[in-house]
Write a structure and sequence with these properties.
Blueprint (H helix, E strand, L loop, with lengths): L2 E4 L6 H13 L4 E4 L8 H11 L4 E4 L9 H14 L5 E4 L5 H4 L8 H16 L20 E5 L3 H10 L2 E5 L6 H14 L5 E5 L1 E2 L6 H14 L2 H7 L3 H12 L3 H6 L3 H7 E2 L4 H8 L6 E6 L2 H18 L20
Parallel strand pairs: 1-2, 1-10, 2-3, 4-5, 5-6, 6-7, 7-10, 8-9
Helix pairs in contact: 1-2, 1-14, 5-6, 6-7, 8-10, 13-14
Amino acid sequence: MSGVIGHLPNPDVGAAVELARTAEDHGAGWIGLADAFWWRDVWMLLAKVAERTTRIDIGPAMTNPFMRHPFHTASALATLQELAPGRVFCGVAAGGSELTAAAGVDRRPAADRVRELVALLRAVAAGAPLDPTSGRTLEPVLAEVTVLVAGRGDRMLAAAGACAERVLLWAIPGSDLERSVAVVRAAAAEEGRRPELIWAPLVRHAGVAEASLLHVAVYASINTAAAVRERWGLGSAEVVAIRRALVAGGMQAATALVPSAALDDLILDDPTPSAVAATASPLGITAVAVPGFGTTSLARQLRWAAEVEALLGEAGSGSRGRSLRAGRWPRR
């Protein structure tokens, strides 16, 4: 079932609850709220969302393994499970550029740290102590939790394939989608896993503000595989400059540094559900997610997502519609 990636900037409780209730009312299966240290605390927001929803799955999208000790993440998940039994997942990723530029965190070991966090959560849910040395256990009960991992670099994609139940292909460039899926699949096969693949493309739906799309696309451009960035003409010096502008809050300045080739590769011009399904089905993608930029556009986005998923569920959906594979993405 389709999901929603909360993308409201610094939402307060009212905004977070309204977005989640809108998602629930329009058929979304899950919603993840952003975990950003510039903004209000994600776990406190999720607690309020738990109180005001009844069916939709909820969790962070995405927490990272650096800013909170893994013990705190386990405790937060266990507490949220008490508030929303059977409806909690854990979204994990490497963390944004601000971790390095503002918080001084070296993100290079992110893939290993994600694997360690997921392993800890699974072990604690199975009854293991938080700390094997002391034997101290987590006192609230942590039930088994579904893990959703998002990534664009190869090490994070491999980590997602190796340890997640669900892999979120969030704002993957069109020219790199097939290769990215292959990286996930190869890592999953080594571990005997077959995670669900969820595609979350950036789409110019009617009613979605261009500034919101560009915000995601700019971040995605600097976190994409180096070989793809080189094809766009986005070099290391430009990546550093974009990252500095983003950390300083200069989105307009950062956007001006991103080549048009990158934006064309990252943003789709409102494709038909059949075209999206034709691209996704041969790759084994079975679900889609949409960014939650606001309640006004979310209902339309979710109707579109439901149509895509209906086609993905039909035999032969991969042959329908116009292909959106590399080199055939709509131009801006």
